[in-house]
Design goal:
Layout (H helix, E strand, L loop, with lengths): L7 H11 L3 H10 L4 H21 L4 E8 L5 E9 L2 H4 L2 H17 L11 H14 L8 H16 L9 H4 L4 H12 L4 E9 L3
Antiparallel strand pairs: 1-2, 2-3
Helix pairs in contact: 1-2, 2-3, 5-9, 6-7
């Protein structure tokens, strides 16, 4: 069986669609026998594996960015970490850190990730939701409570929140945007911590 000819245009088209590197795109197209949809699937599987590996690497470089609202009454600072000084100075990295800081000022999250939410807070919230669903059939109560808990996380956890500028970021969550940047830079990108200030709050 002859190997299909993969043109540079095919590789570029796949790269434009996926954001993957040229060599990865060529390899995926070759493996998929020129089938673009199959190549995208191959890249996704490899990308998820690479993301998992990146997550294990130490992010000890980074930057602190701030945002001050034009009325000077609200502000936020965020520490965004990566693996190398080179990426810490990257335009996309700095822009993302600023975007996260402005989001924090507006959205007022309490925690960076779900892992930071104390167990007692989770149990207290779930108890309330289960009581609120007491008039519903027993088998649907856990689903109702879980749905309300997911909504609570979206309101209080930074990574679960869609960026406040929904038009610019197409309704993507902070976690989705962070994962995209990690994929683009090829480094582990971590939102380490943040602080928000509001005059009189």
């Amino acid at each position: 069986m002859s190997t299909p000819t993969i043109s540079a245009a095919d590789v570029k088209a796949l790269r434009d669609r996926t954001g993957a590197g040229m060599m990865d795109c060529k390899a995926a197209l070759t493996e998929a026998g020129g089938d673009v949809d199959k190549a995208i699937e191959i890249l996704r599987v490899k990308g998820q594996a690479a993301a998992a590996k990146r997550g294990e690497r130490v992010a000890s470089e980074g930057a602190v960015q701030s945002y001050i609202h034009h009325n000077n009454r609200i502000g936020a600072m965020v520490e965004l970490d990566c693996e190398t000084d080179f990426v810490a100075r990257n335009e996309d990295f700095v822009a993302f850190a600023r975007a996260v800081a402005s989001h924090i000022a507006s959205a007022r999250p309490d925690y960076v990730s779900e892992d930071e939410v104390p167990d007692e807070v989770k149990h207290a919230e779930l108890r309330i939701y289960e009581e609120q669903a007491a008039d519903k059939p027993e088998q649907v109560r856990p689903r109702i409570a879980e749905g309300r808990w997911r909504k609570w996380l979206e309101e209080h956890v930074l990574l679960n929140q869609p960026h406040v500028n929904t038009d610019r970021y197409e309704g993507k969550t902070i976690e989705e945007l962070r994962a995209e940047l990690a994929s683009k830079t090829g480094e582990n990108v971590v939102i380490r911590r943040f602080v928000r200030f509001g005059v009189g709050e």
